[in-house]
Records
---
Amino acid sequence: MVFIIVNFLKTFQSLEKSKLINLLILFFCALFFWTSITCLLPTLPAYIQDIGATAKQVGYVMGCFAIGLLLSRVWLGKLADEGLSQLIRGVNINSAIINFSVRFFRRFIGKLVDYPSRKVVIIIGTLVATFAPIGYFLLNSLPELMVIRAFHGVSIAAFTTGYSALVVDLSPQKQRGELIGYMSLAVPIGMAFGPAVGGFLQEYTNYGILFSVSASCGVLAFILATQIREFDFSQNHKRDSIRLKRDKQKDRTFKQIISNASFLVPSLILLLIGSLFGTLVTFLPLYLRYIGLDFNVGYFYTVAAIASFVVRFISGQASDRYGRGIFISISIVCYIFSMSLLTFAHNSNILLLSALLEGTGAGMLVPIILALISDRCSATERGKVFAICVSGFDVGVALGGPVLGSLLLDLGYRFLFAVTAIFAIIALIVFMGFSNKDIPNSWRFALGYVEDLYAVK
């Protein structure tokens, strides 16, 4: 443990001061953002049911989160890569209106309008995270809740796209996996703290206070997001801009990215695991109510978050050294065992072991797949690629909530979670068979024996 802490400090001390400050601001911004999101994980399904919704209707509302994600993710990725002025000019509207819009935004945010802006996208995410919890409390009919839940989904689409791209921008290539792992620690810390706070507030106060706390965390995240210093208008930046413009000419279109095998497999893996996660988040609280187990569901998320926290200290750096494939394979195996245990859970010990494995899988899979994707694209197309690939996870969340619930809930909660274990098995088969340029190399890459042949040199 001492070695891990020493290495952690050594890595951050090696960074330039400006990059270190940016990363610290980003980390605490993400911490408040994820606390805002996750304090509603164990409580929102119960809140929706308490105001009169059926179990299936809970699934519909929770699944609407993915609608907001899907409708906004690609647009936000393009904003992160191209900047607001290019995005506005890409809209087929009268040129006078476009020029007025660009001048309007330039007046208020200066030259930031002319450059790719991860910061603007992050700010959008924190603003949505601020206002959505208020909407849950003020609007309580089923259609209204579905609209607010879809709106809330924009927060994840914006924040994760901007945050992931900016972290990679600030990370030296040889330390990319390590720094992504460290910076993604905000997720398990937020998931350890948020659900525990949410469960406590639900039990000992009321929903009004719960939603107020969630909104307050969004406000703190927004304040920190405004302090990010994204651009350096120095001579070095000008030279970098020339290189980036040259690289941008080689960038792939959305159609080319979607059809590219190097991104298709990670997207499919995220789709299957997203379905698993969507089912878990939507139906775990209701599952525990159904089996009559006296267990605070917030503890499940807390244990998962602790496991995710610990494993990120090791897996990111190790993936830089030993390759991404072996750790993605291990993470999927953890998901298989976690969902299998959850299917047959009958006491708190099995639930906690399932949470431990789920957190371990999440702690390796998400940051290392992000590192894998960033290895396979240029800096100037990173926002688009992240947006498209992570949309696989968004679609999975949508399937896991309303779709799987509608199709399988009548067969029982245990059967529903058994299907998620099968999804994880399929994800492992796909990754081991198709993650590299051919089946033999895919098999060896998944076991850590060969390098990634799709990586941009």
---
Amino acid sequence: MSPSILRHPDFRRLWIADLLSQLGTRLSMIAIPLLAVLTLDATTFEVSLLRTCETAAWLLLGLFAGAWVDRVRCLPVLVFADLGRAVLFGSIPVAALFGVLTLTQLYVVLVLTGVLSVLFDVAHSSYPPRLLEPDQLLPGNAKLAANHSVGAVVGAGAGGVLVQWIGAAVTIGVDALSFLWSAIWLRSIRTPEPRPVKPERPNLRREIADGMRYVFGHPLLRPIALNTAATMLFQAAAGAVMIVFLVREIHLQPSTIGVLSMIGLAGAIVASGLTEKISTRYGDARTLLVSSTGIGVAFTLQALTGPGWQVSWYVLATLLAGFCIIVSYILQVSIRQRVCPPELQGRVSATMSFVGWGAAPLGSLLGGLLGTAFGLRATLWIAGLTSLAGTAFLYFSPFRTLRTVPTTVSPTESRG
């Protein structure tokens, strides 16, 4: 990976802001379900609803957000979303302090922060091409993906320890402060962002349809989108029951869950540093196929987790999943940004996110229903094996015969 990308002063500010947000988000990802399980005595299905509320906005607003972001500057959207999430998450420790915190408040906060996260994620994905040169996108995306890795490792470990040390509600308050700090860094970016050219006759429905048509008419973006949807659906199903599984069946303490997750997710940090080298040597298309398969294998291995030494299966699974998810993410974003025309970046980004994240609330509901009906371990087996089957979308596509994705692939070429 080129070391020069962090010499770009405004990309460095974007990178720091993103790192702060990722760290805080990971704290809440472990603290909120632990708060529900340990403090509010939530059932398996009630815990699964938390994740559903957090991601439901993708189903309602994901496509609209892409069309809207293509019409506006991204940076103000990023700042506004961070400030809003700081206020909303900050309300949780305040309510806990006065003894009035309920599951209903958690659901409302997650729905509202989910809306802001949709706006933030679409704008954040569309912003690098407006800030960087084309040849800086791969190292830039790798650096931003590294934040996912660091956030996953440090946030997971720190989250578990902080929950046991200062309580889940206060840990969520730390997340609120991270969003505030992120907004301050974003506000310090000085590179002028050109105002996008608005269509002469704005038509939101047509603009959204253009993004959908481009993705599902493209021989490479279509299989990526479908594979991502399958992966997200069953990853969400497993994630919806995982904390409940580790606490109530494996009998782990919050700090132990955090430390084990931190060790396993170290693979994500390794991936962020190696993806560019691996894809250069073996080709980005081949690397994407292998990494996507690895994600399905990793989710399946989670079901082997048990007491004692069998906890090592959880560590191995998260290690492999962390590595493969980051490799896949970097390649998918870089391929999309390369083959997508500038005027469609926001809509294509939103379409891809809508297809993937829109599956997440459905997966969370599915996980809660499966966990209630068949048990937590059976849910993990179902989620892992079906996620692995989802790689067929990539294997039965042009990726199967490609080594490297050409930059000239258009939606009118072979459909595979």
---
Amino acid sequence: MSAEPPRPQSPASEQILVERVRKLLDKAARTDNEHESEVFARKAAELVARHRIEPDRIADRSLPDDLGLVEIEVGRGAYVRGRLDLLLNIADSHDVRMVYRSTPQGSVATLAGRRADLAVVEMMYASLHQQVASKMAELRGATGASTQRQRRAFLFGFSNRIGELLAETRANVESSAAESDGTDTTAIVLRERRARVDAFAQESWGRVRSASAPSAVLADGFARGVAAAERVDVGRTRLGGRRSLGRGKR
């Protein structure tokens, strides 16, 4: 009986596999433990064989090492588009590009950007999603369906306001940096950095199809979500200055 051929990988998934193999090979080369080196090398070889990765892909490091891809599982159900919207707003504020795809297990978002920014987006999304999920759980409607509609609207309102707040903070930080610089250097650096990320995302993903717009939400639930976003813990100091996550009164 012949082996079942592997399913084709999307460009983004294949790039993530290539990065995983590279990391395993790097670990194998760095460790002084012979057993660990063998384990890392064997895992890398298994990935290459299973997914039929071309050896030239592993050796090619023409793209800058500070750029990478990350996948985040967003789940399924009535709130998945709201979660994706929250993740997209966070990603946009950190010059990280995002696409998503549906799988039998749920939606998966793929992020492309500078590795330092990807780490912050992951951390911020995990924190904000946990906070909004806790607040959504407190909402109750007259029926299960009305509860779901209220929670969905709340999530979109929360996400929308978080995006606005992060965009405002980013604009203020970049404006202050430009004023203190006294030249166009800051703007030029930011444009070049964003252009590099855009080019990397385009090469990684290829052609991307636009998603349909989400359906309308309840106005009162949306407004409550907006109000809740004003009070959450969000790391504003990380924007622009690329420092660390801190607490901000929202």
---
Amino acid sequence: MLNRLLSNDRPASRTLTLMLLAVLVGLAFAPFLFPGVKALGVAAKVLVFIVLVASFDLLLGYTGIVSFAHTMFFGIGAYGIAIAANTWGPTWGAIGLGFALSLALSLLLSLVIGLFSLRVRAIFFAMITLAVAAAFQTLASQLSDFTGGEDGLSFKLPALLLPSTEFADEPFLGVSLDGRLLTYYLLFVAALGLLLALLRIVNSPFGRVLQAIRENEFRAEAIGYRVVVYRTLSSVLSALFACVAGAMLALWLRYNGPDTSLSFEIMMDVLLIVVIGGMGTLYGAAIGSVLFVVAQSYLQDLLRLGSEAASGLPWLAALLSPDRWLLWLGLLFVLSVYHFPTGVVGRLRLGAALRALKSGRA
């Protein structure tokens, strides 16, 4: 049953299996295991990034396409919810309509980009997507009457999802049973379902063709596959999943702006997570998202503690200043790439395969 649920894509490493179980349990019970507003916000961000990174890995890791327009579809999903709720009110109908329209726009734009740009090679396609994403971000910043401009849009959700909605008079295990908790678990179920759906896609015959195109597109075309069609379909699917991730972010924040979902920094974060977790493996999206988001969220706090502890050594305290958290984050990234060139998941799977080979020879 579990094998079918994972689409016959087992972790193939005991350590990786334990890590994935820890991530699953940690996210499933995060409101109870890690109480506090910040901890719950970090867990929700991890869920959003798991979907966003996994959708990008479908494009980069499985198909071999480098695109810088991924956050554009992420932003479309977030703006679809924000604009609809702000225009038509905090109703389920408005949320559903905004979500449907954002999916339709993402489908149209990804199809146009795919059909007109995927015929060009590597770096040229990357530059085209970068230009399109930059133009879209500029457009979102300047259409202030529609998108809120640089200030973005704050909006309300249906009462069922509001923190003020209490489902019980007394907290359960110290946690209030309110609309905020319900929103978190909606995100959790959505992220888990979308990740399993992506596993099914990449392990289907369609996914095998994508991997063949990644390895050698000329050979794939020579044996009869229409490479442009498959690459375009991969681009469209990736965009739709990114759009859903953007909608998840908007539901959690109840706000969206250009810097929240369209910034180039988010695109760079996604690239880093893919490399850290491991390209061409969706499990890497989960592991990498947890490692990166937790480090990004708590590194300043750890540095602050270290700086206070090293107050007797001024040079060390200055080096551990929270203001230098980006330096330490970059150092951690360099070390992770050096020690895990194929990502955390790739390294663990390779180690498990080598151990199995040695035991077989013995």
